[in-house]
Amino acid sequence: MLGQWEEEVDEEVMIRCYDERRDRIQMERVEKSCEIGHDDQTLLSTDSLGDPICRIRNSPLFTMLVAEVGNKLVGSIQGSVKPVEYHGKSVRVGYVLGLRVVSRYRRRGIGSILVRKLEEWFVSHNADYAYMATEKDNEASLGLFVGKLSYVVFRNPTILVNPVNPGRSSKLPSDIGIRMLKVKEAESLYRRHVVATTEFFPDDIDRILRNKLSVGTWAAYYKDDNIGSWAMLSVWDSSKVFKLTIKKAPLSYLLLTKVSNLFGKLLSLLGITSLPDLFTPFGFYFLYGVYAEGPLSGKLVRALCEHVHNMSASDDDGARKVVVVEVDGGSNGDDDALSRCIPHWKMLSCEDDMWCIKPLQCEEKMNGFSEFSNMCLRSKPRSSLFVDPRDV
Question: Could you tell me if residue 191 is inside a domain?
């Protein structure tokens, strides 16, 4: 598996920062040549709406590096740095995403060079760790990051996807109240209740909640509850940043989509959720900061998810065709219970997400990588993983 990364580049490669005026058109071509899929049967295309760095632009500190051979862009990588709570300490982490190398130039070491240059940029901005996300069946990615660059797998989140039925609202339970929180209220609740229960909680949660893409935060509660059960979540609108399109999918999915389009109105009358047309560009609402306390709080989480579904279904533009949430897929209890309460379609969801991490500046203090690896394996994870919407 590692052999595919060991061939050296036989042409001079220059790594430099992305220049929007000079590189935008070539960068769009690189993106199109590197469309991604969850497996051999599925191909997912991303439209950055004319902004190749749209996925990191909302981060507090970010960069994009490009690999150039001659006057031709042959690869790229993006990264951002932010302060988070990790293992009970405030640290700075660098997030690696968007590693692209055009097919003709793969297996020549360009991917390794891009990652190492980005890690140098992380260190120059005082990042303690670098982390990235991939899928467990992506052998090339795991061979590079885990096999060659010494990253360690530390979490296996699950991505839950629920389709939106345009014009059809779900009926919420009459015994549950839902209230939109002010930004200061939401920030206070997150800092008082969520920080101690989660890993990677962003220290700048206030900036996230005030971001123009953050639609708001809602809390759910029982109207006649004397015990104090409650739940909350925040909503991020990805449709204003990029669009997705499924370009290749299993035949069964294609047929189900066609049937849903043909009999959509009838299915709605029967109370059946039809499958949206994901073969045309679509956006989504991303749910983050999902948290619940008290008995029967799972029902409150479900009500909040259905509330967001109703928000999407009532939008006139119909841009958000699915609602997405990512929860930790480990066996540590709480998130596993939450995932059973979150409405989703299994055929659209993904249980194969994999987060990997590597120490940067703190590596010398830990007497080598093996000690860090053992620490990750031994340490008991907190009950949930906070997924920053800026990383989506």
Answer: yes
Q: Tell me: pLDDT of 87 over 90.
A: no
End-to-end CA distance of the chain: 28
Residue 38 and residue 150 in one domain: yes
In contact, 148 and 309? CB cutoff 8 Å: no
Do 271 and 177 lie in one domain? The reply is yes
- How many helices and strands, by DSSP H and E, does the chain display? 10, 19
pLDDT confidence band for 333 (50 / 70 / 90): very low
Q: What is the mean pLDDT of residues 88-99?
A: 94
**Co-location of 185 and 74 in the same domain:** no
The pTM assigned to this predicted structure is: 0.86
For the beta carbon of residue 296, count every other beta carbon within 10 angstroms. 11
With respect to residue 59, please indicate whether it lies within any of the assigned structural domains. yes
Give 47-100 as a DSSP string.
E-TT-TTTTTTTSSEEEEEEEEETTEEEEEEEEEEEEEEETTEEEEEEEEEEEE
State yes or no: pLDDT of 251 exceeds 60: no
Reported as a pLDDT band with limits 50, 70 and 90, residue 170 is confident
Q: Are residues 50 and 190 in the same domain?
A: no
244 and 276 in a single domain? The answer is: yes
Token pair belonging to 268: 């709605």
Provide the pLDDT for residue 137: 87
277 and 147 in a single domain? The answer is no
Q: Distance between CA atoms of 53 and 59, rounded to whole angstroms?
A: 11
Q: Is residue 390 part of a domain?
A: no
